[in-house]
Amino acid sequence: MFLTRLVYTSSVTDNFSPNDIENILEIARKNNQANNVTGMLCFNRKFFLQCLEGSRSKVNETYHSILNDNRHQRIIMLDYKEISARNFSEWSMGYMPESSLTSPVNIKFSGTPEFNPYEMSGESAHLMMLALKETIPSI
Predict the structure, then answer these.
(1) Model-level pTM?
(2) Under a CB-based contact definition with an 8 Å cutoff, are residues 91 and 39 in contact?
(3) Is there a contact between 13 and 73 (Cβ–Cβ < 8 Å)?
(4) Higher-confidence residue: 77 or 136?
(5) Cβ proximity of 41 and 53 under 8 Å
(6) Cα–Cα distance between 11 and 31 in angstroms, integer?
């Protein structure tokens, strides 16, 4: 079995409601735990940035499910690679909402303090999530 990391970004659609984030997290955590997928989700009410880690087949299945979720649009894969170890092994799905604490981390890995993963490389997005994990408690 090969471990794989996939990082993608997407934006919300008109089908997305403010309560959907709790539903997304609940279902992701349940499904990811059953499939041994780990990762982190960053969200600011406009954009999603997510890292998925696990076996190639389970990460791909999870990503295809996201591609078919009508709450996402403009889904772009930023990075996909085989990895030797997970970075988010303790989380079936860690969650990092945008806050005043995330702005300094955003500016370190992107051009502005505003969270816009479409303006980031896959490597920068992944490094930003690692920095957020180390500096700010996840939900």
Answers:
(1) 0.93
(2) yes
(3) yes
(4) 77
(5) no
(6) 22
CATH number (domain holding residue 126): 3.30.70.100
φ/ψ of 63, rounded to 5, equals: -65, -40
Write the pLDDT tens digit of every residue in 49-97. Answer: 999 999 999 999 999 999 999 999 999 999 999 999 999 999 999 999 8
Output the average pLDDT for the chain.
Answer: 93
Q: Count CA atoms closer than 13 A to 28's CA, side-chain side.
A: 25
Residue 90 structural domain: 3-135
How many structural domains does the chain have? 1
